[in-house]
Known about the structure:
The protein is an alpha/beta fold. It is built from eight helices and four strands. Strands 1-2-3-4 form a four-stranded parallel beta sheet, with helices on one face. It starts with a helix and ends with a helix. The mean pLDDT is about 80.
Amino acid sequence: ALETLRALRRDEPELVFPYPRHIGVELTNEDSLPDRRRSPRHLSERPRGYLAERDLDALLASLPGDLLGASMDFWDFGEPLLHPKAVDWIKVAATAGLRVDLYTNGLALDEPLVVRLLDSGVDAIFIRLDAATAETYGGLQIAGSDTVHVWNCRN
């Protein structure tokens, strides 16, 4: 029976996990790298803004009680760590029993913020890099940000 459950979980997770399995939350469409090609400023006509607390509260209240296996991803166009409540809301989602993944460009990841994130219950931090070399990166991003990314990733 255990092998059957493992196989179902691997091959047909929608039969094992409750709905929803993934919840993507865009905390802001503001970007700390506005000159990059994938910046919201280049891809969308939406005005820049931040998710309101009432909207996150409404989202969490609408979720089913049994969230085993579900994850909330803080990501999308903008840089989630620009939202002043990002770490607090990660903790709220983790406390609600969700797996919490954060996708960031890494520019804000100084030591105090990393400590706060780890204390918040975040399960994974994914750092988005738009290039593999400093030369290529310099052509895509704001000059010098590649150094900040590398330092933040190493530390």
